[in-house]
Amino acid sequence: MGKIATATDIDASGGGPGPVGVTADRRAIGPWARAWQRFRGNKLALGSLIFCGLLIVLALLAPVLAPQHYAETDFANLLAPPGQGGHLFGTDQLGRDILSRLLFGLRTALTVAFGAELTALVFALVIGLVAGYVGGRVETVLMAFTDVMYAFPAYLFAVIMVTVLGRSVFALIIAIGIASWVTQARLVRAQVLTLKEREYVEAARSMGAGGVTIAVRYILPNAIGPILVTTSFAIPAAIAAEAGLALLGLGVQPPTPSWGAMITDGTRNLLSAPHMLVFPAFLFALTLLAFTWLGDGVRDAFDAAGEERG
């Protein structure tokens, strides 16, 4: 008797059921795993992720890695060029080690950026979820408030907040976070409006699940992808906002290092000590590029995953 062809044989021979098996494998992998596969295939995004991870490690270990304390002065080596007096990146106009100040400035930048984005995300999730799920008059009021905030210049609002709260890391986090939640809140609301009519939400509602449970357990996890994309772009924007406020003299109080303040000092001493501008400006630009390329990779990965689900 002839051998009966199995499904495995048909798939291996390139027969009809093959694409069905491929589709089943894709569904078994899941959208998050597919997004990671797409992201991992983007070498620029993967390299940016590794570089951003390295920056975070350097910021956490700044007290250990810094050759000196960021406020320690060396009056024998004022405006010393790189390598002089044991200062690898040179010193500034007060004799402070630039490498040490770069490491602690990185810590300041990432603390403000991640803290501000967390603050913005909390506002966005609360307002977006409530407005999208509850609807009615609550949605009208919340979205009217969101529109008012959207119309107000975010940077000007941050300047006002820092002026009122004072110049500190906490004040910068609150100021930048409150000034930047609007776009994400509108995105969250749009996602909720789309997802709350899905079958699994209706099934949860019919089984007696409450509104909070449905919003947090069933809707929010399925909206994480687009939210993660906007978050990845919001972090470099927060880093730039912190530096911009420092350029205006509204950053953290001296002598706490800030890349914006270091760039300002570098421009004032550009002719006599160009290294004061070159090192912080280069690291600042490289950090923004890395986080932006990381955001591009996350966006492309989730967009592709969404198209495959469609």
UniProtKB/TrEMBL annotation:
Keyword hit for Protein biosynthesis: no
Entry membrane topology: Multi-pass membrane protein
Chain ranges of the ABC transmembrane type-1 domain: 106-295
Record key words, sorted: Cell membrane, Membrane, Peptide transport, Protein transport, Transmembrane, Transmembrane helix, Transport
Keyword Transmembrane helix: yes
InterPro entries: BP-dependent_transpt_permease (IPR050366), MetI-like (IPR000515), MetI-like_sf (IPR035906), OppC_N (IPR025966)
Transmembrane regions: 44-66, 109-134, 155-183, 227-252, 272-294
Subcellular location: Cell membrane
PANTHER family found in the cross-reference section: OLIGOPEPTIDE TRANSPORT SYSTEM PERMEASE PROTEIN AMID (PTHR43386:SF24), OLIGOPEPTIDE TRANSPORT SYSTEM PERMEASE PROTEIN APPC (PTHR43386)
Family: Belongs to the binding-protein-dependent transport system permease family. OppBC subfamily.
UniProt name for this protein: ABC transporter permease
